[in-house]
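Thread: quick sanity check before group meeting

JM: Hey all, I'm pulling together slides for Thursday and realized we never actually wrote out the predicted structure for the chain we discussed last week. Dropping the sequence here so it's in one place. If anyone has concerns about the input, flag it before I start.
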Amino acid sequence: MDRIFEIIDSVNDRFGKFLSYFNIGIVGIVCWEIVARYVFNAPTLWASEGMVMLTGLLYALTGGYAQFHKRHVRIDLLYDRLSPRRQAICDGVTYIFFCFFMFALVWAGTDFAWDSVRIRETSGTPWNPFIYPLKCAIPVSAFLIWIQMTADVVRRWKSFLKGSTTKGKEI
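JM (edit): ok, ran it. Output follows.
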């Protein structure tokens, strides 16, 4: 099981690092639009929408990376004051709700994305790019977050049950 969790960690870490290069594209698009608009007085149809689409894709698909690096929002003020036992219980309870939400997001997101792919959905703007790749990112990102959270919670509970969890130690 530890090997599977290492693979999940590696996939989310490498995928997040790969996607970080999208930031260069986003900055390039913004710079292009600024130069085109203010230097050449020739704004583009695609720059604003392209930047929003890339940013949305980046934001959605790096959720597993954020979970792997413990960068999601948590109320540390309360959580860190709990004993390791209560932290493990808190993780277990929140994980149950989290699973229902992620399952629904993967299930509904897959239907949502499939419908978009089936009709080759476009944005309906003057540039009119395909938007089904963005919609396909919804179930993929939910799945990546889900498996990373599962790995984290199982590791936390294994550590707790072995008695090796210490106060404030990140697993």
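AS: nice. DSSP finds seven helices and no strands in the chain. Residues 46 and 127 are 6 Å apart (CA to CA).
JM: adding both to the slides.
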